[in-house]
Amino acid sequence: MSSANTKPKAKSSDPQKSFHAPKGMHDALPADQHYWERIETAAREIARSYHFARIDTPLLEDADLFKKTTGEESDVVAKEMYTMRTKGGDVLALRPEFTPGVARAYMEHNLSRLGQPQRLYSVGPVFRHDRPQLGRTRQFTQVNFEVMGGVNDAMYDAQIILIFATLLEELKIKNTALKVNSVGCKVCRPIYKKQLQNYYKNHEKELCADCARRLKTNPLRLLDCKNPQCQKFKEKAPNFLDKLCVTCSKSFKEILEYLDELQISYALDNQLVRGLDYYSRTVFELSAEGAGSEVGALLGGGRYDYLIEFLGGRLTPAVGGAAGIERLIAVMKAREIAPSVKAVRRVFVVHAGDSAKKKAIRLMKDLVGAGIPISESLAKDSLRAQLKSADKEGAHVALILGQKEIYESSVIIRDMRTGLQESVTLANVVEEIKKRWNHK
Ligand code: HAM
Description:
This protein has helices at residues 33-49, 63-71, 75-78, 99-108, 154-170, 188-201, 209-217, 228-231, 240-243, 246-261, 307-310, 325-334, 354-369, 383-393, 403-408, 429-439; strands at residues 53-54, 60-62, 83-85, 91-94, 118-127, 139-148, 176-182, 267-268, 282-288, 299-303, 318-324, 347-351, 374-376, 397-401, 410-415, 421-425. The protein is of the alpha+beta class. The strands form 3 sheets. It has an 8-stranded mixed beta sheet with strand order 1-5-6-11-10-9-7-8. Helix 1 runs antiparallel to helix 5 (154-170) and helix 5 (154-170) packs parallel to helix 10 (246-261). Histidyl-adenosine monophosphate binds at residues 97-99, 128, 130, 136-137, 140, 142, 144, 146, 276, 297-302, 304, 320-324, 326-327. Histidyl-adenosine monophosphate (HAM) is lined by residues 97-99, 128, 130, 136-137, 140, 142, 144, 146, 276, 297-302, 304, 320-324, 326-327.
């Protein structure tokens, strides 16, 4: 990997070496899985409701794919991409985002023939070798929605924003701020860029090194420089919204009307340009306000009508966005929003003796086959220790198999809360459990 950590490393044979997750990458532990499940389920249900089909693309893509689309000048490609040369000599990159890979797949499989537009969604890890800090990691997980192909209709820009607003609503994340802007098209952007360059040229010597370079290569990015020495010039910079061509201006107005209709509140931010080069017209970003706001933007996106053309395809209208799951979780935790995940009811299977243990594993298979989730601590020999585990897990029902039960083809059902026990035949146990569950 070209951007791998350069610190000297202990040899793998070093017996003292202790292993940690790579810097900027984290384990999603069992204790947090209810957040993940809630977010992924909400995304999947919204995708289904709005008729988005799931697409999964490889973690690795040709590095040039990102250079041509996300942009060689973008931080994501210039500074943050994990690239590698394979044994076969290909230069691949770990995807730093979904959009270029989804566009590549759209072209490669000629997805437009399946109907237009294509509505595609993805969930999965992406990688950026950035400096880790609060809300910023090197591996993170995006929920990504794209509308590709068909006609260029402002309705889709609004619908993408609506989809993310719905996701936040589902997750009970309120108190957020949506910023929208337009970065124009092939017609108006070059004119605006020239005006911006002329304005900034007067301050060239006072700009940070990155901005001095961007002044020539990508002047729009001057507007989102976070460096304090560059901030002060932003205020008087020409406003793109005043310079949009008639078509871009009309389209932007329509999007705002749709957002009004949907009662989605927004603020215009003429300095929002986003760090990825492929955007045209609409760009948007949404952040938490108050608790959790320190993690940075929760989601962002925009229109990218030229991306497929950059890859040698036809001019293809497209719009999309992505949210970072880790940041959503951070906000939920900061606000103590407990994800409502349906608890799974399960029966705890207990054995008393070796031959009962064999029957117990068979009983578990039959229960699972009948749609009844199980739990156990069969490796423990003592009945008391197993029941203690059942208690610890908060099990409501335990099924106990002993010598007598094997002989009689029966099982004891124990209500863990009352301690009441009853014997039922093995043939009836599934029915009996379902009956008890339906009564509660
Ligand atoms: P992005 O703004 O670069 O857009 O990333 C989208 C979201 O990913 C961010 O709002 C944030 O929640 C999360 N994110 C970004 N970087 C990090 C990081 N280092 N650590 C943790 N979370 C992070 C895109 O990636 C575009 N592809 C979105 C898009 C789709 N535009 C059109 N279609």
